[in-house]
């Protein structure tokens, strides 16, 4: 059993309990998410956020089921709500004895007088259905429950509650059906042996504090559509199932199945940390079904990211290959092959389900890395044969030139990229028409990736009986020209060369990729100097800063409205995913796993400090490095797993 646990002192400290968030997913891009305290502090919080066009077009269908328990003459309201008025009513967090994530399932224990009640939330894998399972652990008589069902059916990014008159509730036997305004969907609610009473009143002014911190509208209205009354005897199990499909298992069975899946994913991992990360990794792996044609992919992060080409390929080795799921990894790689166009891979599949966007210079190069990593694990000759034409198309696209000025400079064999107003590298923040880090020219990590891609394509050519010489020759030109990146004045690499303003001397982590992917590009002395500079200027306990603190453009805190946040995103903010390339680079030059382990170990503490049992997107550049951004990010989890694998 894999467990992450918060004890009573943390659960009954509202500041702590509201800052810790849980997440469950269903393998389709749908999710449920909330706080340990039970407050809805984000517009993304709820029990059912359904990806109606998996894994995109996500809608907040079921924000909350507000539970009340009547036991031995006392009423216990288990919900915790913050309101626009400033009131906090009810205060169910006060009854919490503990919170745990057990094999991936968030589980609360409440003390209600002399009774103890366990509440667990899980999603049915592959279905838009959420269970709230109840178990009366201890009591001297039956607990009487009232469940108030609140609905919304709005885009999960926010927006107004649809017209309440468009919601229609009907009761039939052991269940209820709520007709939703959007696309004639129906929310089905099932509770064994319950008495249902339709309701229809608007609950106004839920206050989402995290949205206020992000400079966004923090208020939401939800519609109360149903009350259900039922009882559970001492030792009994029961609960509520709500989903967009009728029927299915009851709440305890859905929770048991979710825990069994988590146990299976972590089986064979003796280290509890790696076992937990194996479960965390699974949350990002989804089956997309655009136009009814399914393909497996990776969601970049929860709650607001979809599947991104770059993030998918960076995350794939750590999420899947390191967890003995090479078959899934190969399926993802094959599924992306039809999207290669002009040598490029899509950067993002938009949440609205519109056409893929090809505004990235590195996604295709990371795709090559993912293909190489798969082949290295599976030794599948057919896979190599099938993917070699894809590699050749990518190399041809970059060699002859493609979108946004991406192409090989015939003068030195290096890749140049960029046009005004478009962000092409992973440092892609943009405010209005202003790109914060345009990086137009020849970025250092792009050319390290290009060198690696040429080497991989040459090897695949050999394996397929084709001529590797053109790729070997191109790689040799890159190796010879890479010395141009060296900044002797600072003893490390320029971040970008041949840009509109010349060479960029900013100390950023991108140079690490040259040492991690191909240390021969710099030679031993310079490679060691790069690692040392990044260690002293960029490394923190939770990852690497995106800019050295001494730089005039450095921003140490990530927060405020969107303009402020995007302005800080790559100007000092810490990204935990960078720990993977840092550790690989450090090992390449120092070959000291024990020392490298000291850089990785502190990240374990972050698994309980934001999203329980997972790793978030970013942290403040300044100490104490508060967590920010999404609570669960694919490449953060993946590169933590990869780094642990490197240090043993």
Identify the notable features of this structure and list them briefly.
alpha+beta, Beta-galactosidase, Chain A, domain 5, 30% helix, nine-stranded antiparallel sheet, 648 residues, Glycosyltransferase, 17 helices, 39 strands
What integer value in Å does the Rg equal?
26 Å
Instruction: Kindly report how far apart the N and C termini lie.
Output: 22 Å
> Domains counted in the coordinates: how many?
2
Strand order of the largest sheet: 1-10-11-12-13-21-18-17-16
Number of strands: 39
What is the CATH-assigned architecture of the largest domain?
Alpha/alpha barrel
Q: How much strand?
A: 25-35%
Look at the helices and sheets and give the structural class. Answer: alpha+beta
Give the overall pLDDT as a whole number. Answer: 96
Shape: elongated
| Uncertain residue segments | none
Helicity range: 25-40%
Helix segment count?
A: 17
CATH class category of the largest domain: Mainly Alpha
Task: Give the biggest beta sheet.
Answer: 9 strands, antiparallel
CATH fold-level assignment of the largest domain:
Glycosyltransferase
Please provide a written account of the structure.
This protein has 648 residues and is of the alpha+beta class. It has two domains: 3-263, Distorted Sandwich (Beta-galactosidase, Chain A, domain 5); 268-647, Glycosyltransferase. Helix content is 30%, strand content 29%. The chain contains 17 helices and 39 strands. The strands form twelve sheets. A nine-stranded antiparallel sheet has the order 1-10-11-12-13-21-18-17-16. It is elongated and about 80 Å long. It starts with a strand and ends with a helix. The mean pLDDT is 96.
């Amino acid at each position: 059993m894999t467990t992450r646990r918060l004890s009573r002192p943390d659960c009954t400290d509202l500041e702590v309990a509201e800052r810790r968030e849980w997440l469950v997913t269903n393998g389709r891009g749908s999710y449920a998410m909330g706080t340990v305290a039970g407050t809805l502090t984000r517009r993304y919080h709820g029990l059912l956020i359904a990806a109606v066009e998996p894994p995109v077009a996500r809608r907040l269908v079921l924000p909350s089921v507000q539970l009340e328990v009547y036991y031995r003459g006392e009423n216990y309201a288990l919900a915790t709500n913050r309101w626009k008025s400033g009131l906090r009513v009810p205060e169910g967090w006060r009854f919490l004895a503990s919170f745990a994530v057990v094999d991936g399932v968030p589980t609360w224990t409440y003390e209600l007088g002399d009774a103890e009640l366990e509440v667990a939330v899980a999603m049915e894998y592959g279905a838009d259905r959420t269970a709230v399972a109840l178990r009366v652990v201890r009591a001297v008589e039956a607990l009487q429950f009232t469940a108030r069902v609140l609905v919304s059916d709005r885009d999960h990014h926010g927006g107004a509650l649809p017209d309440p008159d468009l919601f229609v509730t009907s009761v039939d036997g052991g269940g209820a059906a709520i007709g939703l305004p959007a696309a004639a969907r129906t929310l089905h609610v099932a509770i064994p042996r319950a008495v249902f009473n339709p309701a229809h009143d608007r609950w106004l002014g839920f206050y989402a504090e995290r949205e206020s911190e992000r400079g966004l509208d923090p208020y939401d209205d939800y519609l109360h559509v149903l009350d259900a009354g039922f009882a559970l005897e001492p030792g009994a199990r029961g609960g509520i199932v709500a989903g967009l499909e009728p029927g299915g298992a009851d709440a305890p069975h859905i929770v048991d199945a979710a825990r069994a899946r988590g146990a299976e994913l972590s089986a064979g991992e003796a280290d509890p940390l790696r076992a937990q990360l194996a479960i965390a990794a699974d949350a990002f792996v989804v089956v997309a079904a655009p136009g009814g044609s399914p393909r497996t992919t990776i969601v970049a992060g929860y709650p607001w990211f979809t599947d991104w080409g770059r993030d998918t390929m960076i995350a794939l080795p750590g999420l899947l290959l390191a967890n003995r799921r090479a078959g899934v990894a190969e399926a993802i790689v094959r599924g992306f092959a039809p999207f290669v166009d002009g040598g490029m891979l899509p950067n993002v599949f938009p949440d609205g389900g519109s056409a893929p966007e090809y505004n990235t210079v590195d996604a295709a190069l990371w795709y090559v890395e993912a293909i190489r990593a798969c082949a290295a694990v599976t030794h599948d000759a057919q896979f190599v044969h099938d993917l070699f034409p894809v590699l050749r198309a990518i190399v041809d696209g970059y060699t002859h030139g493609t979108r946004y000025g991406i192409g090989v400079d015939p003068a030195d064999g290096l890749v140049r990229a960029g046009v005004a107003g478009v962000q092409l590298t992973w440092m892609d923040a943009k405010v209005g028409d202003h790109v914060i880090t345009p990086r137009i020219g020849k970025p250092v990590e792009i050319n390290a990736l290009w060198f690696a891609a040429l080497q991989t394509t040459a090897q695949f050519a050999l394996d397929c009986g084709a001529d590797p010489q053109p790729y070997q020759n191109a790689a040799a030109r890159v190796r010879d020209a890479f010395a141009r990146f060296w900044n002797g004045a600072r003893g490390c690499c320029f971040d970008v060369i041949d840009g509109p303003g010349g060479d960029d001397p900013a100390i950023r982590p991108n140079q690490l990729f040259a040492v991690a992917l191909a240390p021969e590009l710099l030679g031993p002395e310079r490679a060691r100097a790069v690692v040392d500079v990044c260690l002293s200027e960029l490394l923190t306990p939770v990852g690497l800063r995106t800019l050295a603190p001494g730089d005039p453009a450095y921003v140490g805190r990530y927060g405020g409205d969107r303009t402020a946040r995007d302005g800080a995103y790559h100007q000092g903010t810490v990204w935990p995913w960078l720990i993977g390339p840092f550790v690989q680079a450090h090992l390449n030059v120092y070959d000291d796993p024990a020392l490298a382990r000291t850089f990785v170990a502190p990240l374990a503490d972050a698994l309980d400090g934001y999203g329980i049992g997972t790793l978030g997107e970013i942290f403040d550049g300044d100490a104490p490095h508060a967590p920010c951004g999404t609570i669960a990010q694919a490449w953060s989890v993946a590169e933590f797993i990869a780094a642990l694998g490197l240090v043993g």
